[in-house]
Specification:
The structure holds two protein chains of two kinds. Chain A is an alpha/beta fold. Chain A has a domain at 7-228: Amidase signature (AS) enzymes, CATH 3.90.1300. Chain A is 38% helix and 13% strand. Chain A has an eleven-stranded mixed sheet, sandwiched between helices. In chain A, helix 7 runs antiparallel to helix 15 (461-475). The two termini of chain A are 14 Å apart. By secondary structure, chain B is mainly α. Chain B has a domain at 6-44: Histone, subunit A (Orthogonal Bundle), CATH 1.10.20. Chain B has three helices and two strands. Chain B has helices spanning 6-15, 22-39, 75-79; strands at 85-86, 89-90. Chain B has a two-stranded antiparallel sheet with strand order 1-2. In chain B, strand 1 and strand 2 (89-90) form a beta hairpin. Chain B is flat, with a radius of gyration of 23 Å. Classes of the chains: A alpha/beta, B mainly alpha. Chains A and B meet through helix 9, helix 10, helix 11, helix 12 and helix 13 of A and helix 1 and helix 2 of B.
């Protein structure tokens, strides 16, 4: 049983004086300290958090407005630029970096009274599916400490299940919110590409990066998204909100007659039989409430991972070129001239996975290979987009597993990067196509949680959250 | 199928401004060909008549008024992360 009620209820209790923002922050900080053994957290922002909480409490005493998330503590993945602690993206090259400004998502949450209390661990620069690629330490799965929590938002996902805060922020470039949510058993929401500002979040792959919440329930995820979704002058790729907004608190959707496509390609070879069983049972539960669930064929889907591992390293190599040791981050001390300062700072500062992706990206973008790799991948991406559009003509929602297996052992995939990449095989398509997608707890294999993935067409985030709310009720 | 030699790896590293350790060279000479072999399955896909997707929002030429907006950033905060500073400017190693 969680110590945190619904986010809307916490804010109401703080605003009405039943509890204080300081009490909420202290509760979060105490839980973080008590659960240290899981290594979910890189650093707390305790001083700033308590100061902000006191300011909010003082405003309430004076009868001033404090916002709809008043006194609600949260944890940010450490690739969000936040005041009050370093922003490292769990990388050595950013160790010691103090953000001179905050990300738009954080500013919007703070404007409504939410309080960031800590920064969560991740695979360095969000490159990974297990949080083992953190340059600092490996986060443990709360259900079995010999296993990974998934990744790259593994620290954020674990922090929610460890009850450290009512919500955590993650980023999802190819599954980095949904896959850890499935591995630890929480809700993980990847919004439509463009709905959430990327400003002030350490860039991974700019054409697929999205910012989403990890929560205990769908209503909380929707509440948080509603606060920060929407256009941002600091990110010219942001798109308009839906008119009705995203909050679904107190809403209900009838599953009767809702058309759902169960993705055939995700249920075939390569999926763990026990995971498949959980997904099929979830589909049956949706049917029992009147949903029409049919198998849907997306023939190009098995190509999505290959497309992803060309486009994303290409964008990664470009985005990581800014780490040159001159303006911020690690700078090699022994360099004698500018060129050697670039080379040594990057070589000593980046970990092996960042280097691997920079090298792949450099290769697929290099002259002579660009057309065969990068342009081809972008064209197959169009094929995927067309197939999804066709499927959404017939079905309102698409469902499937989130990952082919439950949480794997720490070290199990560490020596084989391709095997690690395969953990993303069921999540990358949503990023390439741009559609919103959610991971919902659907069952367990032994003691390990397994998620159900639900996707909706682009810019139908509200419809997806309502569907998830209904699914959450039947899966419980 | 891309055959990536040790020399190719060193050339790529040079393009990316990376200096690899002997262990990293060994590892990447092994890893990169297997990753590239996996992504090369796309070569066989028929994409006749399809255009590449550069981005999914469909937005084009997003503009804003050409005016200064004060976001409250302080020069001192922006400078505090500099590895080396000289009179409020970025100081680098010598170029020549």
């Amino acid at each position: 049983m969680s110590q945190w009620p619904l986010i809307a209820e916490i804010a109401a209790a703080v605003t009405s004086g039943k509890t204080t923002a300081v009490e909420q922050v202290e509760k979060a900080l105490k839980t973080i300290a008590d659960q240290k053994e899981y290594d979910a957290i890189i650093a707390t922002t305790a001083d700033r958090a308590l100061e902000r909480a006191k300011t909010i409490d003082a405003k309430i005493k004076n009868g001033e407005a404090v916002g709809r998330l008043a006194g609600v503590p949260f944890i940010a993945k450490d690739n969000y630029l936040v005041f009050g602690a370093e922003t490292t993206a769990a990388s050595n090259i950013l160790r010691g970096f103090n953000a001179p400004y905050q990300s738009t998502v954080i500013n919007r949450l703070e404007a409504e009274g939410a309080i960031c209390v800590a920064k969560a661990n991740l695979d360095a620069f969000a490159h990974g599916a297990s949080t083992e690629n953190s340059d600092f330490f490996v986060t443990k799965n709360p259900h079995d400490t010999s296993r990974v929590p998934g990744g790259s938002s593994g620290g954020s996902a674990a922090s929610v299940v460890l009850d450290m805060a009512p919500f955590a922020l993650g980023s999802d470039t190819g599954g980095s919110i949904r896959q850890p949510a499935s591995f630890v058993g929480c809700v993980g929401y990847k919004p439509t590409y463009g709905l959430t500002s990327r400003s002030g979040v350490v860039a991974m792959a700019s054409s697929t990066d999205t910012m989403g919440p990890l929560t205990r329930n769908v209503a909380d995820a929707a509440e948080v998204l509603d606060v920060y979704a929407g256009p941002d002058p600091l990110d010219s790729t942001t798109t308009p909100r839906q008119a009705e907004g995203y909050s679904v608190t107190g809403q209900k959707m009838d599953l009767q007659g809702v058309k759902v496509g169960l993705i055939k390609q995700y249920m075939g070879d390569g999926i763990d039989e026990a995971v498949k069983k959980v997904v099929l049972e979830a589909a049956d539960k949706l049917k029992s409430r009147g949903a029409i669930v049919e198998e849907v064929d997306l023939p190009s889907l098995p190509l999505a991972l290959a497309v992803y591992y060309i486009i994303v390293p290409a964008e990664v190599s470009s985005n990581l070129s800014r780490y040159d040791g001159q303006r911020y981050g690690f700078s090699a001390k022994d360099a004698t001239d500018l060129e050697s300062s670039y080379v040594q700072s990057r070589s000593q500062g980046f970990g092996v996975e960042a280097k691997r992706r920079i090298m792949i990206g450099t290769y697929v973008l290099s002259s002579g290979y660009y057309d065969a790799y990068y342009k081809k991948a972008q064209t197959v991406r169009t094929k995927l987009i067309n197939e999804f559009a066709e499927a959404f003509q017939k079905y309102q929602y698409l469902i499937g597993p989130v990952a082919p297996t439950p949480a794997f052992q720490i070290g199990e995939n560490a020596d084989d990067p391709l095997k690690m990449y395969l953990s993303d095989i069921m999540t990358v398509a949503a990023n390439l196509v741009g559609v919103p997608s959610i991971s919902l707890p659907a069952g367990t294999v032994g003691k390990l949680p397994v998620g159900l993935q639900i996707m909706a067409p682009m810019n139908k985030d509200r419809e997806l959250l309502l569907m998830a709310l209904a699914a959450e009720e039947v899966l419980a | 199928m891309a055959k990536l030699t040790r020399e190719d790896v060193l050339k790529l590293a040079k393009l990316a401004k990376l200096e690899l350790t002997p262990e990293e060279i060994d590892r990447l000479t092994k890893d990169l060909p297997s990753i590239l072999a996996y992504v090369e399955q796309l070569g066989e896909v028929d994409t006749t008549g399809l255009e590449p997707t550069l981005q999914v929002t469909g937005l084009q030429n997003v503009k804003r008024p050409d005016e200064v907006i004060d976001y409250g950033y302080q020069p001192a905060d922006l400078l505090k992360n500099l590895p080396a500073e000289l009179g409020g400017q970025i100081r680098t190693k010598r170029i020549l």
